[in-house]
Amino acid sequence: MNIQPNGRQAKQDEEFPVQVDLDEEALLQLDALLDKVVMSMTIWTDPLVTALGEELSPEEQEMLESMVDVDFYFEDHYLLELYNAMIYESEDEPYVAGIDRITRVLSRAVEQGIRLVEIAEEAESGAPIFIFEDVEGEGSLLVVADGWLLDTWETLPEEE
User: What's the rounded Cα separation, in Å, for the pair 75 and 2?
Assistant: First the structure.
């Protein structure tokens, strides 16, 4: 696991290729991750939205305290980057609040071993819900993200 400030920089003229719609094409791409185990992750402590210089209302700024950008490194070299993600330990509990608690919950889950078992859509917002289960098939973890990017990795963060 790796925790870093967000050093990602987007050029003003360049369109950032973050997916926000969970359409049929996006679901086909994300299906490649189903049943894959997460090998590592990186949590970005400064969300991309602030790095891009977005103007935020006080309510949005407060909400950011419970959101993280997180990169999940899956087996078979898949990388899933999630933006403005909220973490839930179950669908019956409120989201995990605060960067320290979010870090503990995600770190524990990845260390114990989790795999992606389902991708659903939040009814109200249409945001994707990434549903993870531990490798024993018992506990779950839900991650709701405003945007995502699917890529590949060559080196795990702890190997750099």
Answer: 17
